[in-house]
Write the structure tokens for this entry.
Amino acid sequence: MEELLEKCSLFKELNSNEIAGYFKQLNYQQKSYEKDQVVVHADTEVSSLLILLEGSVRGEMMDYTGKTVKIEDIEGPNLLAPAFLFGSNNKFPVTIVANNVCNILSISKASFIELLQMNSEILANFLNNISNRAQFLSNKLRFMTFQTIKGKIAHFLLQISKKTGKDEFMLPKSQNELAEMFGVARPSLGRAIRELNNDGIINAEGKKVRIINKNELAGLLK
């Protein structure tokens, strides 16, 4: 367990022996989940810090039509909903489902507070983690405000272009994964990409994309 935790952002700069020493003083449990098994339901109170040691899980949310939308995939080792451990409305914002067989560590809130008091590096790592999560959710919320498929595609491509500093790049996700992330049908996404191609706004060949007219692409965000 300690070797896996050594790779987790919460324990950055700590070795497995140091981590083992701290866990001798903590109240924690480990549990395994099978593929597609629900780890925790949305709106459940967050009473423990959950750490995905091994495997992969996904966060799912139901929209107003009753359709399940995948928010993101999380690979271990990683923290699950750390920003919701504290606060007045500390409930899981999404349902967490196992993508495959996974192993999850649960540390009681009281024990985790003790851990934060034991080591300032762990405290700083935790604060950095929840700050990063807040920024991710902010970007996600902004992305979800785009009503059209082309607007979602434009936002996604422009974000990659800004990050890489290039107008030609390889997509990090397949069209199936993009359709799932956008919450749209795969054929609808493919049709929107073809139309952007035909309009001379982008050139897409498989995962390779080149932005031809950045101004027109940005105009789709309005």
